[in-house]
Structures are given as structure tokens and as C-alpha cells.
Fold this protein.
Amino acid sequence: MFRTSILSALLFIASIVASSTFANSVNLGPSGDTTLFESSPDDNTGGNPILGAGANSKLERSHCLLRFNVAGSLPSNASIQSVTLTLTVVKEPGTAPADSTFDLHRVLVDWGEGTGTGSGEGGRPAVTGEATWNRRFHPSTSWSAPGASAPTDFSSTISASQFVQGLASYNFNSTANMVADAKQWLSNPSTNFGWILTSESEATPKSLRYFGSRENSTATSRPVLSVQYVIPVTPTIKAIQKVNGTIQFSFAALAGQPYTAEYRDSLTGGTWSTLTNVSAQPSNTDVTVTDPAPPSIQRFYRVTTTF
């Protein structure tokens, strides 16, 4: 509680704002990954050491699916700050490969990874519950269109993009959409269907790239999701002052979190009313809130947020 004198009366400030100073990070491997090959539309490749995306020389397309167990790897009250996905190209078309930009989209429906293996652009005939180009669960649950399609199977919004050329590791660096995806999966694990990776050059022959999967024998070739997060702690309001008949106070706002400043005129009862809503900030910062019409006797304030 914070106390100051205003117009010969008492003003009490109570803060229950959640902020944080403890930064953490975790690297996650996929909890599931597989490729949908148009060239083998009823095969499952969930056990293959590679993931394919792009088009082969015959313009047959490939999409790959990746899922990460965010809720099972982070504290439930974690506030996710950044998310980076690292994929490693382990194979490309033998001659004159076409470089292209690859996009991540959040998947909106469930799918079965499976355990199929095989060489080249295929695995083995799918068994019940496994994903293929034609089905998200073989043999009876289909994608909205073969190979999965937006906006039903995955979001039309691009979560992140990366230009790919040559055998190397590539980072899909953190974006607001990637962070939003991870936050969604943390707060609502039942909606975690991962991302689908597609090439923007599917109409171009030899845009196909093979990335290491979670089954790859080389650990450094496997997908890695790096998550930076903080754990909230409870500070006090940092400053309060009277300015030209108004009351101003500040608090530490955590990047990416919206806040609501509220007030009521009794500490022991009454409904909290909204003073102002503070939009999510791009970085950790101090935010100043102004009450333009404080009462002459007392008022209580709090700042809340949902992580």
C-alpha cells in the first residue's frame, strides 16, 4: 500500500500488478513432425529422418508439419517474450535447385504424426490415425483439400518467413505472430496443432528442400524451438504524484502484456472500475497512468494483467 496527501485528505494506492525480472529460456525438440508428399499421397512419413517442403522437378508439392509441447515444457504462468525456430537443410535437389522463401502457418486442426519410413519422397502406406497428403487421420478424416489448405486447415496469416538457399541451418526469427502462437499453445494446449511449413515457390520446379526431422541421427540437424520467457513477480507501484489536479502513478510493464488500471473508493468493498487499458508494449518499460478526476477524500488503485 502507498499513501500520499491530497487536498488535506488521504489517498491510498494498492497495487497488484504482475511484472517480472527473471528471464528464462528453453530449447524444445518437436513432439511430432511429418511430411505430406503429393507424390505419395497415401503414404505416411512420420518416422523419416527428413522433412520436405517445396516442389520437386515434376511440380509435385510437399508440406511438412511440426508440433512442440509448449505447455508441457514451460510453467503455466510463464510470459513468453520471443520464439525462434531453427531448421537445418540436409538435402536439396541434385542440380540447379531453386532457392525460395519458406513460410510457417499455425495449423488449426489435429493430425497424426505416424511412424512411416521410406526413401525419397515417400514412406509406407499409412495405417489408421496417420497423416498423409490426402488425410490428416488415415483413412477417413481428410484435410479440407489435399495437402492441407488455408483457412480451414491452417491460418492464412504467416507466422514467420525465411529465405533458404543451400545446405545450412536457418532461423525463423521471433515475430509477434510466432509469440502469439506459442502463447495460445501455452494457455490452451488442446489447440496446439503446431505449424505447417510451405514454400512460396511451389509453382517452381526443384524448390523442394529436405530439413532434418526429430528422428534425424545427427542431433544438430533436428528442429529446435527456442523460447525466451519470464516468470511474473509482484512489485509495488514505482511512483505517485499530484500533477495539476490529477493523480499520476507508474508501474513496470512487461513486454507483450496488456494491462488494466482500475480504481474504487473503498478498500474493503465495491466494484473495481476501469481507469484505462494499457496496450501491450514492445519492450519492458515503465508506464504512467493518469486519473484526471480523483476524489477529494480517497481512492484505491490496482493494475492487473493476464499472463
